[in-house]
Specification:
The protein is an all-alpha fold and about 90 residues long. Helix content is about 85%, strand content about 0%.
């Protein structure tokens, strides 16, 4: 049982670490600001859409990693509580 709890703890740490990395990567991508007098062409629109899509993908991965960390933490805490009740 101790090995299982240790594996869960390491999985929680790994998922939280990945979540932080994904959000850090998503926050580093800055979009080029434009002014209202600037003329935009198709390449500019394409660059903006690609940047938004990449940021959204990184944010989605970070949210999934955070959810996994939360689920694993809930499993770890409930397993610990059940182990205390049984013993």
């Amino acid at each position: 049982m101790t090995i299982l709890f240790l594996l869960l703890d390491l999985s929680i740490v790994a998922a939280a670490f990945l979540s932080g990395i994904f959000w850090w990567l998503a926050s580093r991508k800055r979009l080029r600001r434009i002014c209202r007098d600037e003329m935009l062409d198709h390449a500019d629109f394409n660059r903006m859409v690609v940047a938004f899509n990449r940021t959204q993908i990184l944010n989605a991965r970070a949210a999934i990693a955070t959810a996994i960390a939360g689920i694993l933490a809930a499993i770890r805490l409930s397993g610990n509580m059940i182990a205390e009740i049984i013993v």
